[in-house]
Amino acid sequence: MKLLTFIRSNPLFFLGSAMFFFLLYIAFFGKYLPAIDTKLKEVDFLWTENKIPLAPPYEPSEQFAIGTDRLGRDLLSLLVLGAKETLIIVFAIALVRYLLAIPLAFFAHKNKFGVNVVLNWLNGFLSYIPTIILVILLATLPPIVLSKTRPFYLILIIAALEVGRVAEMIKLELNQLSTKEYITGGNSVGISNFRLLRKYYMPFLYGKLLVNFVGDLGKVMFLLGQLGFLGIFISHSFIQTDTGAFGFKNTSLSWPTLLTDAFRDLRGAIWIPFYASLAMTYVIFTFNILAQGIRKLLK
Amino acid sequence: MGWDFLKSSFVFVIIVIGFIILLLAPRIMTVHNLGGYYTPKTEMTYKENIQAFIHDFQTEGFGENRYGTAVLEELQAFIKRDLIIVIPAFVLSIILGTFLGVVQFQFREGPFGKIQAFFSWIFSSIPDFFFYIAVQYALIKLFYVGLPQFNLYGNDQWYSFILPMIAVMLYPMLHISKFTFTSLENEVGQDYLRTAHAKGLRTISVLKHMLWNCLGSLLNQTQFVMLYILTSLLIIEKLSSYFGAGYHLYGSIINNEDQRTLAFILPYLLLMFMTVIFTKVCRHWLVPRKSGDSR
Question: What transmembrane ranges does the database entry give (chain A) (predicted)?
Answer without folding.
Answer: 12-33, 87-109, 121-146, 152-170, 220-239, 270-291
